[in-house]
Amino acid sequence: MSAMAVTLRDVAERAGVSVKTVSNVVNDYAHITPATRGKVQRAIDELGYRPNLSARQLKYGRSGFLALALPHLDSPYFSELASLFSAAATERGFIPLLDITGADLAAERQVLAGVQSHMIDAVVFSPLTLTADEIAARRSRVPMVLLGERAIPDGYDHVAVDSVSAAEAVVEHLLSLGRRRIAAIGRESAQGTASVRLDGYLAALERAGVAVDESLVVGVPNYERSAGYDGMRQLLALPEPPDAVFCFNDLLAIGAMRAAADAGVRVPDDVAVAGFDDIAEGRYSTPRLTTVRPDMRLLVDEVLRLLKRLIEREPGGVEDVVIPWTLEVRESTAGGADA
């Protein structure tokens, strides 16, 4: 049967329920038993039913489309985020759309302007180049939830990891191993992730009474493996190289470990290396990478909860949601230890 020809009545007959029950499942009505929801969903999958979006928009004022605007998809962190968001949104009856801005200012401004916004119920946006003032001046009325570790203007729901406390924990772990020349790879001129993780790095050193050596804080053009490689080579060329390196994401750390290996420097014996994000590559690297693991599933669930509240105009104030994290101690800092 053609998916375009399948109706709610067809699904109801296949599932052995009423048309109203099928409608409630399609529109994510809360008071449906798991057994009934599963039966209806199986019928939907078997018949290939797709809702009539034009009719839905006319009846409910909603299309069912959610836009996720991310700076990159070649980053494992954003790739995982997109995958989890797509699956969770689909489970809730939404149709996810993906927009890759490339961290380009013009593209990010288009997201703010709400291009073809009449077809989208809400937007999840992770901006890298926009200022808080530009976001505050947004005129589009499409609901929007912001992601990322950056200054957020009043009036917007925001979901992010507490990168300051997480970065502090990484440096405290390195200090607990007796390391004192702890370097950081990841400083950028732009606001956002780099600045907050640098804040955590500096705070941990200050609390431990360890003086900051500016030569140990390395700037990068991007958060790719090659930048981590070059950053580690710069550090190893110092008259007194570091005995530990905190990289502001896992890709930087993996590049840094490759540079150490190429230079005959042992990780973690000569230099301990830690990252941030817990991407799959770090779990299978040699040595396995110590890192910060954000609760990505909870992040996606919280984003969708906020979107649903905004779309349905439920009561409640603006929320700034902080996602928990754990420090995964592995071989790159603790030798044979693997928590």
Overview of the structural elements:
The protein is of the alpha/beta class and 339 residues long. The protein has 3 domains: 3-50, lambda repressor-like DNA-binding domains (434 Repressor (Amino-terminal Domain), Orthogonal Bundle), CATH 1.10.260; 60-160 and 295-323, Rossmann fold, CATH 3.40.50; 163-294 and 327-334, Response regulator (Rossmann fold, 3-Layer(aba) Sandwich), CATH 3.40.50. It has 14 helices and 12 strands. The protein has helices at 8-15, 19-26, 34-47, 53-60, 76-91, 105-113, 132-136, 163-176, 193-208, 225-236, 250-262, 280-283, 296-311, 331-334, and strands spanning 65-70, 95-100, 122-125, 144-147, 157-161, 182-187, 217-219, 244-247, 272-274, 291-294, 320-323, 325-328. Strands 2-1-3-4-5-11 form a 6-stranded parallel β-sheet, covered by helices on one side. A 4-stranded parallel β-sheet has the order 7-6-8-9, sandwiched between helices. Strand 6, helix 9 (193-208) and strand 7 (217-219) form a beta-alpha-beta unit. Helix 1 crosses helix 3 and helix 8 (163-176) packs across helix 9 (193-208). Mean pLDDT is 89; it is low at 57-61.
Q: Helices, strands, pairings?
A:
Elements: H1 8-15, H2 19-26, H3 34-47, H4 53-60, E1 65-70, H5 76-91, E2 95-100, H6 105-113, E3 122-125, H7 132-136, E4 144-147, E5 157-161, H8 163-176, E6 182-187, H9 193-208, E7 217-219, H10 225-236, E8 244-247, H11 250-262, E9 272-274, H12 280-283, E10 291-294, H13 296-311, E11 320-323, E12 325-328, H14 331-334
Parallel strand pairs: 1-2, 1-3, 3-4, 4-5, 5-11, 6-7, 6-8, 8-9
Antiparallel strand pairs: 10-12
Helix pairs in contact: 1-2, 1-3, 5-13, 8-9, 10-11
